[in-house]
Amino acid sequence: DAGVTQSPTHLIKTRGQHVTLRCSPISGHKSVSWYQQVLGQGPQFIFQYYEKEERGRGNFPDRFSARQFPNYSSELNVNALLLGDSALYLCASSAETRPSYEQYFGPGTRLTVT
Amino acid sequence: GENVEQHPSTLSVQEGDSAVIKCTYSDSASNYFPWYKQELGKRPQLIIDIRSNVGEKKDQRIAVTLNKTAKHFSLHITETQPEDSAVYFCAATPYNQGGKLIFGQGTELSVKP
Question: How far apart are CA A43 and CA A56, in angstroms?
Answer without folding.
Answer: 15
